[in-house]
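Methods — Computational structure assignment.
A single polypeptide chain was analysed. Its primary sequence is given first, followed by the predicted tertiary structure written as structure tokens.
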Amino acid sequence: MVLLGACAGWSLITAAAHDGRPEGMLLAVLAVAAGYAAGRVSGTLLPVAAPCAGAAAGLALAVTLPGLSPGPWYAAPLGHAGATAALLALAAGAACCAAWATAVPGLRLGLRVLACAVVTAGAVLGSAAGCAASLGVLLCSLVAGAARSRGVWLAVPAVAAGLVAGTVWAVAADALPGGLAGALGGRFTAHRTGLWRDALWLAGRNGGLGVGPGRFGDPGPEAPRTLLSEGKPHSALLQQAAEQGLVGVFLLAAVFCWVLYALWRIPRSTPIAVTAGAALTTLAALASVSNALSFTTVTAGAGLLAGWATARPWAGGAPGP
């Protein structure tokens, strides 16, 4: 709560300094906090039913996402794709957490079938990223049954998410070797990499306070000529750097690290901690290359999953391995 409060406070400070619009950041913080609180309460009372219902809801929202887009769906296809993939990854994580939380073999099998349905939905929807992300979460959950040292299992996906964020930063700075840059050139459109370069340019000129929340797409004397008018750089890391400076980046990373630390310390079973960690680090990687965190459904879903995974069931139970 202290970190989330700091995120909200810093957005207000940077908004006051540059006449920014902090409402989007404040809404995201509120969604995460509300989702986490709801997840802790419902996960305590209904440790299996709550994440199961959340997985079904996430799947339904992913299917109907065009109606939930913050703008016309044809005007923001990159954000739509990122949010769809994020919701599918969170839904798969919730279904797998519910499966590990029950001791009934038949119910556990049914919940894993639900997770498989989420993966299939990604393929049917044409979301390659969503299909791959949810499949990765499902596979991590299945092998988590053999995990003993949860710290290592949580560190590996966290390092992978860090590598994705570092790669995005390097692409924006045009700092990759020629061969690697050529290999990644076909993965990201010129539109997207142009937005990343614009965000890094603004971050370099305003490293302290940024240009202000919500002001990335505003025309002005400090905006680069290549800046596109969409208003989002499609990278949570670069958006924070451009709009709220290095402190904003630090706070975003600190919230993510705290979630992993909480999963490492929880008395729940290791498979639940590893599954939730895999889903949330997948979300972090997706947020590095899209504007998935601009959707309230995604930020609230992340808070819910973290709450379900860290909740202590009312009936108690012996901690897992």
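Note: The radius of gyration is 19 Å.
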